[in-house]
Amino acid sequence: PTAGWQLRERVLWQVAPEDVSRLVIRQHGKTRELVSSNTNSWALAPGSQGIIRVEGVIYAVRELCRPVATVWNAHGEAARDARFGINTNSPALTLELKRGEKFDLQFGGLSPEQYAYARVTLDGEPWVFECSHGLFEFVLNYLSIPASAP
C-alpha cells in the first residue's frame, strides 16, 4: 500500500446465503431478477426472461455473500475513472436480503494482473477494488446477461 486508505478492511460484507431473497442483475441496459424460496432454490422472478443454471447461481450467491477485495485501487471521485472499465454494459448486481438490506457490486475491466475491477459503495463513497478470479468467473458464467438476450 502507498496510502492509508488502501489498508481498509478487505471483506466487503458477510451474510448467510439463506438470508438472501433476491438477486437483481443489470447489464447491457437489461434487468434480470432471480428469487429464492430457500437456500438451494433459485428461479427467475415473474417478468424476467432467460435461462438460469441453479447450481451455478447457488455457488455464485455463496461467493457474493462474502466478497473480498484483493486490492483497493481507488475511492471517491477517482473510483469513477474510465480506466476501470465499469460502464452500463458491465454486470451490476444487487443482493437483497430477506430483511430488506441491499448490497451492490458493479464489475468492469481487467487489471494488469488480470483481476476484474469492481465498484462498491461503502460509507456513502464509491470504492474500486480487484476481486477474486472465482467471484468474477461465477458472475460471468452464471449471472451475466448476454447482449443478445431479450
Protein model, in words:
It is a single chain. This protein has 150 residues and is mainly beta. Helices cover 15% and strands 38% of the residues. It is built from two helices and eight strands, in the order βββαβββββα. An eight-stranded antiparallel sheet has the order 3-2-1-5-6-7-8-4. Helix 1 (54-64) runs antiparallel to helix 2 (133-143). The model has no long low-confidence stretch (mean pLDDT 94).
Terminal CA distance reads 44 Å
Backbone structural class: mainly beta
> How do the helices and strands follow one another from N- to C-terminus?
EEEHEEEEEH
Name the assembly state: single chain
Descriptive key words:
150 residues; mainly beta; eight-stranded antiparallel sheet; 15% helix; globular
Q: Layout of helices and strands, plus pairs?
A:
Blueprint: E1 20-27, E2 30-38, E3 41-44, H1 54-64, E4 69-75, E5 92-97, E6 102-110, E7 116-122, E8 125-131, H2 133-143
Antiparallel strand pairs: 1-2, 1-5, 2-3, 4-8, 5-6, 6-7, 7-8
Helix pairs in contact: 1-2
Short description:
The chain has 150 residues and is mainly beta. The protein contains two helices and eight strands, in the order E-E-E-H-E-E-E-E-E-H. An eight-stranded antiparallel sheet has the order 3-2-1-5-6-7-8-4.
